[in-house]
Design brief:
Blueprint lengths: L1 E5 L8 H10 L1 E6 L7 H15 L5 E3 L1 E3 L2 E2 L12 H10 L1 H21 L4 E2 L24 H17 L3 E7 L15 E2 L3 H6 L13 E4 L3 E2 L12 H11 L5 E6 L9 H11 L3 E4 L4 H10 L5 H12 L9 H12 L11
Parallel strand pairs: 1-2, 1-12, 2-3, 3-6, 6-7, 7-9, 8-10, 9-11, 11-12
Antiparallel strand pairs: 4-5
Helix pairs in contact: 3-4, 4-5, 4-11, 8-9
């Protein structure tokens, strides 16, 4: 297999996409709202993806809750943004952690039922004053120790439901003053501040099986390249100071923060130390370029990929209706949209 994850264009695989998956052999796939019409159709799409590629490939989704929820009403419940768990935590630490675990567990049940086995969550970014709103309420809070505790609880809920969590956006997107979907953010804080705040939230989460990089320049470590394409940041911060040993994927390389051709971006991410390149938009010309530029998944990257998949386990038994009722009752006085959840 090759060291990339691919999106596809719509809710049904085209013949061209089937041939691409068969020939390019990406490690896995990722789905977005454009790919989703109903639970049955999404389940078929997941099965068709795996049939086309010829193995039980991982399928990813960004299902955080709040603003970033690809599967939603009327087929699936709305879930709160991470900040809601943080608000509960502030008044009752144990209650906040229990809510985060429950949110992760319920989302995992939704995903597993349609054949999705990897969720790009939890977000461990720590927002700072003056930062762009792209993170905002997607964060669990503004204190690293609180963010790490809630992120760990949410990840545990996902894992208990048989879904692998992806830690993001390592080593931190919370201080960025621009949305990396549009342009490249520069963070000029010194290393001492970064290690006490942005990076600190990720350190207790270093054992999670998968993580996604930030398209953010940290000038104190590398004044030019964002974390995704910076050997210094991957080596010194992600693998070094944070101590992350799991499978490291890039954020979407088609985002506006990165420059160069898609092939150049893919090669730069791999050269920097990313094990996998993520490409999301389903544009076939770009998909072909990314596939051509990424190497076979081998060596340490292959070992980390195998270890990540080995961390997946069968879902623990759960009374879903009772768990849903308990969860939405718990968050109902903190999050108003809970009243309209399916």
């Amino acid at each position: 297999m090759r060291a990339f994850i691919t999106g596809i264009a719509g809710p049904i695989l085209t013949d061209e996409e089937r041939a691409f998956l068969r020939d390019a052999q990406p490690w896995g796939g990722i789905v977005f709202k454009r790919n989703i019409t109903s639970p049955d159709a999404l389940r078929r799409l997941a099965g068709d993806f795996r049939t086309a590629i010829g193995r039980d490939a991982p399928i990813l989704i960004d299902q955080e809750g709040g603003r970033v929820q690809r599967m939603g009403p009327p087929s699936w419940p709305k879930y709160p943004p991470a900040a809601v768990y943080g608000a509960i935590y502030d008044r009752d630490r144990a209650g906040g952690l229990a809510a985060a675990r429950s949110g992760g567990r319920l989302i995992a049940a939704d995903l597993a039922a349609v054949g999705i086995d990897v969720d790009c969550m939890p977000v461990a970014d720590v927002p700072a004053a003056g930062a762009d709103a792209i993170i905002g309420d997607r964060a669990f809070g503004t204190r690293p120790e609180k963010v790490a505790a809630l992120a760990a609880a949410f990840a545990q809920g996902l894992a208990d439901g048989g879904v692998l969590p992806v830690l993001k956006h390592i080593p931190g997107h919370g201080r960025a003053t621009a949305d990396s979907h549009q342009k490249l953010p520069l963070v000029t804080a010194n290393r001492e501040i970064l290690e006490a705040t942005d990076f600190a939230a990720f350190r207790p989460l270093a054992e999670l099986p998968l993580a996604m990089t930030a398209h953010v320049v940290f000038t104190a470590i590398d004044p030019i390249a964002p974390a995704t394409t910076s050997p210094a940041i991957v080596r010194e911060v992600i693998r070094g100071w944070i101590g992350y040993r799991g499978l490291l994927m890039s954020d979407d390389i088609s985002m506006g923060a990165l420059s160069g051709s898609l092939g150049e971006r893919a090669r730069a991410a791999v050269s920097a130390g990313c094990d996998l390149v993520l490409h999301c938009n389903g544009n076939m010309d770009e998909m072909l370029a990314v596939a051509a530029a990424t190497p076979r998944l081998e060596g340490e990257a292959a070992r980390r990929a195998a270890a990540a998949l080995a961390a997946k386990r069968l879902p623990a038994p759960i009374d879903l209706p009772a768990k849903r009722a308990e969860f939405f009752a718990l968050i109902g006085d903190v999050w108003e949209p809970a009243q309209g959840s399916a």
